[in-house]
Amino acid sequence: MSKEIKLSSHMKFAHARYRKDGGDNSAEAFREDVLLPALKKNSTVTLDMTSDFGFPMSFSEELFGGIIRRGDLSAEELLTQLNVVSDDPFESDLIIRLIKRAKS
Description:
Mean pLDDT: 92
Largest sheet: 3 strands, parallel
Shape: globular
Helix content: 40-55%
Structural class: alpha/beta
Low-confidence stretches: none
Distance between the termini: 27 Å
Radius of gyration: 12 Å
Strand order of the largest sheet: 1-2-3
């Protein structure tokens, strides 16, 4: 099964790493409430990160690196299961690097 998620449909702007700092607009909230459940229920997930606003590196690192550090998936599993769509090629490359260097 496959699922597509548009990040901008779930938050107006992304700015905080942790829920305590940004509530529903945090990487932690999106990861735990939206992305992880989708990854657990589907063999592939396409995350559309195209938007009018950028994403701080800390947001992207917590969103993707947090999955690996918490032991939800390995880097290899995440790279196999997740497709990221971005209008910025640098963002896509950055996400791949963040996933590969995250430590569990």
